[in-house]
Amino acid sequence: MNRAAAAAIIALLALSLAFNLVNYYSTQNFKSEISGLKAEYSSLKSEYLKIGGNLQKLDQKLKELSQRLETLTSPPPTTVTVTVTLPKPEGLTPQQVFQQAEKSVVQIVTRVVTPFGVEGGQGSGFVYSAEGYIVTNYHVVEDAASVEVRFIDGSSYEAEIVGTDPYSDLAVLKIGELPSGVNPLKLGDSSKLRVGDTVVAIGNPYGLSGTMTLGIVSQLGRFLRAPGGYLIVDVIQTDAAVNPGNSGGPLLNLKGEVVGVNTAIVSPTGAFAGIGFAIPSNTVKMVVPDLISRGYHPHPWVGVRGFDITPSMARKLGLPVERGFLIAEVLPGSPAEKAGLKGGTAIKVVEGQRIVVGGDIIVGLDGVEVRGIADILLYLERHVEIGQKVVFHVVRDGERLDIPLVVGERPPPS
To answer: Structure pTM?
Structure first.
């Protein structure tokens, strides 16, 4: 072996030794690093467990403190008793109304002398006062030679006709005394009635004493024809069954108050067909005291005849207004003639109806609008005394005029 080969072998051995030394020290360093990391991990884990334990303790402490705080700030639970009082039903039941009123509703039997003999009639009425006054319809006792009043207990009394008013279809009778336990019926305020209110009619239809029917107020402010071409105004319309013999009986509200006097029906057969009428109690309050004190009730009077204007009529006649009362005739000697109101001067035919035109058109009274004769009559009846001055607002030849008129007393029907 030459010196070069030996040198090469020595060099290789040196390199191998160096590599092994490097590898040894590298392994030792790596093991040392791993040992260090393990020690650090163990330390961190210990700290974590320690912190976790502390957190659990803190969490439990917070819960305890929260519960204590809630106990301190919340009031102790209490038991509260609430009493609710439900409103009582307004008024009486229909049965209670009947029970209160039945003894005070009477049957009226009349005898009328005619050229053909004595004829009988019947109707109803109710006790108005403790003095024995009884209210009924005028047409029930009209032309009666004798009147008998019968109570539901069977007692019967001869009655005197104290006063009558054909213009409101009301009459007052008088008997000597009332049976025991019979009381006057209270008059209510008919102006408080509303369409749909429940009403009770009590009377003697076809002679069947003590009959009650139930219905509602169908409409208000109707009018009925009265003698002499006049109107009964402010009439109540009801669907409570009213038949012949009911006339003069009370129409009551659910307070047991008389709000009307049953007076008429509309029927093609003469039997009830769903439309009945009653004179309002406020008219009774106005008329009956006069019937008791002087036998009659004075009604205001103007003295005109004419037509209610409608928009259709106004267009066809060429009138300057669409609503009002067109005067066709001014009665001689009437308040209207004295005041200077003008009647018609010509006749025109509209849809087959002869209409007298050219007269004044009444459109208001004392600043209150007038749409027809019913408005005029209602205003006069409710707000005007005999002898009182009223300003009539009229349209004459297209010009509006204010004409003062002193209201007179309506003459008796001829």
So the answer is: 0.74
